[in-house]
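W.,

You were right to be curious about this one. When I first looked at the sequence I had no strong expectations either way, so I just let the prediction run and decided to look at it fresh. Below is the sequence, 110 residues in total, followed by the output.
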Amino acid sequence: MPKLNTTVKSVRIDNDKLAELEGRLGGKTINAWLNEQIECYLSGGKGDKGVNPQKKSEKSGLTPNKDLEEIDSMAKFFGMDGGELLKIICAGLEEGELTIKNGKLVTVNE
């Protein structure tokens, strides 16, 4: 039964990315995970910042992949952690300052 005062939003997700996400969630529904991420973001908490859902579920035995380690390494160069770097990238995408073109992250020229 749906909760009162909720809204349904549809999103388009690449099939490969969806399969990877579902695999990392270890049985948790995308809806439950996304609601946790939203709550954490709105409360200013660190959480997993929507980057690595497997981190929260240590019981699953999963570990962060090499891509996330690389992001953390790049972020350290700028004096921040990987989550902070990804927040900046997400903000740039949401604000239209960044976009994905031909599989690469690029700035939007006005």
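Here's what jumped out at me. The beta strands are 98-101, 104-107. And, maybe more interesting for your project: Residues 49-62 have pLDDT under 50 and may be disordered.

Coffee later to discuss?

I.
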